[in-house]
Write a structure and sequence with these properties.
mainly alpha
Length: 126
C-alpha cells in the first residue's frame, strides 16, 4: 500500500488551485484579445468563430470556478481529517484526490488546446 501524507495532498490542492487561478487570468486576457480582434473581423464565418470563442471562454471560466471550488472543499476535508483522525487518510479521500487530479488534468489539457486554437485564429488578424 502506498502511504500518502496529508501535507502532500494539501500541497497538490494548493498547486492545482493556483494553476486554476492562472488559467482564469489567462482566459480573461484571451477574452480581451477576442474583443480587440472582433473589431477587425468581417465575414460570417469569422463572426461565427468570435461567437464560438466567446462562448468557450464563458464555459471554461465556469469549469475553472467549479473545479477550484471542488478542490477547496476536498482540501478542507483533508484538513479536518488531519485534526479529527490523527492525520490518517481514509481510502475515500485518496480516491477523491485521484479523481480531482484526473479532472484537473483533463481541464488543463482542454484549456491548453482552446488557447492554441484561439491563438491560431487571432493570428489571421494580426
Amino acid at each position: 500500500m502506498v502511504t500518502t501524507d496529508i501535507t502532500q495532498l494539501t500541497a497538490d490542492c494548493n498547486s492545482w488551485r493556483q494553476q486554476m487561478r492562472n488559467y482564469r487570468d489567462e482566459i480573461v486576457h484571451l477574452k480581451n484579445q477576442l474583443r480587440q480582434t472582433a473589431m477587425k473581423v468581417s465575414g460570417r464565418d469569422h463572426l461565427r468563430d468570435v461567437d464560438h470563442y466567446e462562448n468557450q471562454f464563458y464555459i471554461q471560466l465556469i469549469n475553472i470556478h467549479d473545479l477550484k471550488h471542488s478542490i477547496k472543499v476536498h482540501d478542507h476535508k483533508t484538513a479536518v481529517a488531519r485534526v479529527s483522525k490523527n492525520g490518517k487518510i481514509n481510502p475515500t479521500t485518496i480516491a477523491e484526490h485521484q479523481h480531482l487530479h484526473e479532472q484537473y488534468s483533463r481541464l488543463q489539457s482542454l484549456l491548453d488546446e482552446l488557447k492554441n486554437r484561439f491563438n491560431q485564429f487571432i493570428s489571421k488578424f494580426s
